[in-house]
Specification:
The chain is 11% helix and 15% strand. It is α/β, with parallel strands linked by helices. It has a five-stranded mixed sheet with strand order 4-5-6-3-7, with no helix packed on it. It has a three-stranded parallel sheet with strand order 14-15-16, covered by helices on one side. The longest helix has 25 residues.
Amino acid sequence: MKIFSKFKQLKKDAKIVIITALLASCVGVYATGECIISATADDVSYKNTTVQAAIDELFAMSENYCPPGYECIIPAIIQPTSDEDETAFRNSTYKEKIKTITMDDQINPPSNVIESWDIGVHQNGDVMAYIKANNDDNTMYDLYIQGDGSLYANPDSSYLFDGMYSVDSINGINKLNTTKVTNMRRMFYKTGYNSQVFTLDLGNNFNTSNVTTMRAMFAEAGYNSTVFTLNLGNNFDTSKVTDMGWMFYQTGVKSTSLTLDLGDKFDTSNVITMNYLFFSVGYNSTVFTLDLGNKFDTSSATSMNSMFWNTGYNSTVITIDLGDKFDTSKVTDMRLMFSHLGHNNPSFTLDLGDKFNTSKVTDMTQMFHEIAYNNNNFVLDLSLFDFTKVTNYSGIFSGISATNTIYVKDITARDWIINNSGNSFLTTSNVLIKT
């Protein structure tokens, strides 16, 4: 371990030398932004990088060293928070009574401030929080978070807005620089939980390209808001995320108009845990739809427990197409995975795709419990299913009626379903071998 650490330090030192030398050659054209630097030395590559990106990286690697001829700005970074944090704006006096949150990358204190705190990691006044009475209800508060020239979210931004139950709106989120964040666990957990009007629009500056965990990130956000919507923006990049458990758990559960479009950067190829990922999201929305995008790759996932349980329960238009990257070859736990999915849509369909491999699955308890409950003509194609390792399967097909049809690959699979489902409606008449 010591040898490895020393090797890493040597590579880091070599990179610092390379960047410093290259930046020295770019000083004359820095103002025009036209200098692109590239070099390879001592097994360290540095290619096609803009001057500003190089400055930022050097600044971070070398304890705030600013190369000669350049002007460097120390980023204003918010302190990390925790679920039990009682400091700053998370003090119990205020946290549950905050009605609005407004962020800015300039220090401009609002009028009639009740209290203020330094909430920056440097403790030099470069990130401040201000609390004032809400204009419409003087028993509630408005929170202002301001940075001096910049406003960076902490690399550990878990719990940042956690437990702010009364929030009606978050303003200026485009001023919050999230490019350095790696942890967004419970970042918006129960944010706006009690609000009747809360919506969340992350905008196009909410960059998540370095985030590795999004566990419960939006869980129960906007829970009681009947108008809740969620816009992830076009920079919601999940390519490094490994944990998405509970990510959209009961998000906007009472909204009547919620839909969820994951966009074209929702890459799940490194995600291992997907338990409760979409549990009850869009539960009360009669128009709820779920677009997984074209990068929903599940090849690394091992657990999908309750992944789509109650998703779009009351939607009359929801259908689910898992796409061509929904690879379940490593998954062992699928209990309650599709339970109640599409419950109230009389024309609900489910397309499992061509990579739905169940060869390692041991638990399918209530996996399809009351799926498409109000669709009398529901067809479930399980022709890729292998039940040989399944040991827990209680209620796997409970609620599926005699008018529904299940397709399987062979007699063995058909007999397994009929003999183990505990559902007397499933017989050779509607459990059919696909030809």
